[in-house]
Amino acid sequence: MDVIGIIPARYSSSRFEGKVLADIAGKPMIQHVWERAKQALLLDDLIIACDHEQVAEAASSFGAKVVYTAKAHTSGTDRIIQVINPIEVKVVVNIQGDEPLIHPTMIDNVARALLENNSIAMATVMRRISEPDVVNDPNVVKVVVDKNNFALYFSRAPIPFLAANSNNSNPVYYKHIGLYAYTKDFLFIYKNLPISDLEKTESLEQLRVLEEGYRIKVIETEYDTVGVDTPQDLEKVKEHLLDK
After folding, report:
1. Any bridge partners for residue 176, and if so which?
2. Which of 62, 107, 227, 236 has the most CB atoms lying inside 10 A of its own CB?
3. Cα(197)–Cα(84) distance, rounded to whole angstroms?
4. In the structure, what pLDDT confidence band is assigned to residue 243 with cuts at 50, 70 and 90?
5. Which option is the CATH number for 3-231: 2.10.109.10, 3.90.180.10, 3.20.20.70, 3.90.550.10?
6. pTM
7. Contact by Cβ (8 Å): 40, 5
8. CA distances from 139 to 221, 230, 240 (A)
9. CA dihedral (233, 239, 243, 244) positive or negative
10. Are 150 and 120 in contact (CB under 8 A)?
11. Maximum Cα–Cα distance for the chain, whole Å?
12. Looking at residues 220-225, what average pLDDT do you find?
């Protein structure tokens, strides 16, 4: 198998209990994620990895393949590893269960980056920011990349910082979208990397990869997403879908 998509779907959430089952236009949020991911062309298989009976029942009701994973897992990565450990696969795509606006081309693009270049072990997504207020929002992660679109840094702060004496009056900012693809081998390396100082400072897990000297390919997309962390985020998603 070349590419498998895993949707980690944890029921418990400190800010929004049961959010993956929250209703959006008559469907649970996890169904929106699954239906969009099913449209990706490169996925050979798609699995919802959950830790709660209600999520498993909901996922089964709309035809998804479900694997029940341990409640003790502290991260989506651990949940994914439990699922893919016995599976022969080259590339694993981590599709967040709280991203109901994910676009299938994003999934294909991160998978393709790894399939077409065996020197790349991890890839993710960015989108150019057009809204000035988003740049300063710490809930929106920004990323800067090198000339080959490998990540230099991720931050909740506005990066690059516009210095007072800068000759560049119109810097470009990119929002990081938390969709990841890994080779299966690198996923196990990633799991065992120590928590880094930068990661603890910014509360961004992907920084441990950069701090350990590994590279992350970043693919630009024209599509935006709204990650649902709070009930207020859920309302933004509903408004977005109504505008379509």
Report:
1. 126
2. 107
3. 29
4. low
5. 3.90.550.10
6. 0.92
7. yes
8. 19, 12, 18
9. positive
10. no
11. 59
12. 93
Tokens at 219, concatenated: 């693919």
Q: Which of 13-27, 90-104, 158-172 has the lowest mean pLDDT?
A: 13-27
Q: What is the C-alpha to C-alpha distance for residues 68 and 88, in angstroms, rounded to an integer?
A: 19
The whole-angstrom separation of Cα 25 and Cα 35 is: 14
Residue 73 Ramachandran class (φ > 0 left, ψ -120 to 50 alpha, else beta): beta
Phi first, then psi: what are they for 154, rounded to 5°?
-115, 145
Q: What pLDDT digit, counting tens, does each position of 115-137 carry?
A: 999 999 999 999 999 888 899 99
Give the per-residue pLDDT at 172: 94
* CA distances (Å), origin 178, targets 38, 65, 140, 212: 18, 22, 10, 20
Which positions ≥6 away from 68 have C-beta within 8 Å?
50, 51, 56
Q: Which two tokens stand for residue 46?
A: 């798609």
Give the pLDDT band (50/70/90) at residue 204: very high
Rg (CA), the chain: 18
Across 151-183, b (16+ Cβ under 10 Å) vs e yields: bebbbbebbeeeeeeeeeeeeebbbbbbbbbbb
